[in-house]
Amino acid sequence: MGKYRKMTPQDTVKLLYQSEFGGGHMISDKESARQYLLRELADLQKTEKPPTTEQLGDGAARINLASLPAGLSADTLFSIFFESVPLFRKREDMFEKKLALPLSLIEDGTAPFTLYEYNAYLERYFRAGGGAVHHSLAYSSAYRPSYRVVHKTFSDAIDVFSRIDSLLAGGMRGFAVSVDGRCGSGKSTLASRLAAVYGCGVVHADDYYLPFSERHGQLGNLDAERMRRELSPDGGKIISRAYDPHTGAFVRETEIATEPFFVVEGSYSTFADHNISFALRIFVTTDKDEQKRRISARCPDKASDYSRIWIPAEEEYFKKYSVETNADIVVAT
């Protein structure tokens, strides 16, 4: 609120609503919503203000249309917006709890409105039925807001989408993108977001572990020879087989499309000896406390093994091959 001193109770409720429900209320018809975005973009002038992304909390972020990164296409932006809609929690009870959040800001004088003004607006808001609201006239006049609300897992990687759009606009097709990085940082999530927007194929490095009996210090215990054989596109497609070292068997076979490009995601995927030439190298990271929290939530029974074995091994790999330094884009989640 400190940055937006013209913010009113109405704008505050709008922000809290967006953080819980996203922007799905703007999509009654997909094509109409896309055309509306195109018209809005055509009427805007690019500026350095506001920042490209602003976090709203609970996985929501605003992407400001007036300061989009170079290369990002309107179609990609709309796909990001559209694919974000089902990712929001959309719970009315949680939204009503969030309405109490501004009270501490009002109490310490940070909010640009009084408790009386906030309560009066809430009374009018619920009397009118609640739901999504527009920005106030004061806020709209001062800041001319023009944005789309997307999920944080998209906004964190907005530079990745703009870089891929630039490669595609330059005529590149069938290229490979690596998504490497720290465990628990969101590599698989980013790969799935790329697949949702572009329809690209995704290869998981975890499917290429060697049998336990054949692990003799290979990078990440990955079967680089099998990766070389399977990840060489044949007629625009790859047949990727997932191996389970615990059962010693292949558990599934997946046809991976290489158009418009394909993604190889997973720790050690960038520098495994598979002879794949990556057009774009992405490194995904998060801070140690968040990494520990995510791993403990995802697999509490293996958290100790991660701390003692797998995380130190990864960090050694990152250091030895300068993985983060050599990345084209670093995504912090």
Secondary structure topology:
Layout: H1 9-21, H2 30-42, E1 53-57, E2 60-64, H3 74-84, H4 92-98, H5 102-107, H6 115-127, H7 137-143, E3 147-151, H8 152-155, H9 158-169, E4 175-181, H10 187-198, E5 201-204, H11 224-230, E6 237-244, E7 249-257, E8 261-265, E9 278-285, H12 288-298, H13 303-321, H14 323-326, E10 329-332
Parallel strand pairs: 4-8, 4-9, 5-8, 9-10
Antiparallel strand pairs: 1-2, 2-3, 6-7
Helix pairs in contact: 1-4, 2-3, 3-10
What's the β-strand tally?
10
Query: Overall 3D geometry?
Result: globular
CATH homologous superfamily grouping of the largest domain: P-loop containing nucleotide triphosphate hydrolases
Largest sheet: 5 strands, parallel
Mean pLDDT: 94
What structural category do the secondary elements indicate? alpha/beta
The number of helical elements comes to 14
CATH architecture of the largest domain: 3-Layer(aba) Sandwich
Question: What is the alpha-carbon Rg in Å?
Answer: 23 Å
Strand content: 15-25%
- Cα(first) to Cα(last) distance is 23 Å
Number of spatially distinct domains: 2
Instruction: Give the ordered list of helices and strands.
Output: HHEEHHHHHEHHEHEHEEEEHHHE
CATH topology name of the largest domain: Rossmann fold
Helix content: 40-55%
Features:
2 domains, 333 residues, 5-stranded parallel β-sheet, Rossmann fold, alpha/beta, 42% helix, 3-stranded antiparallel β-sheet, 18% strand, single chain, globular
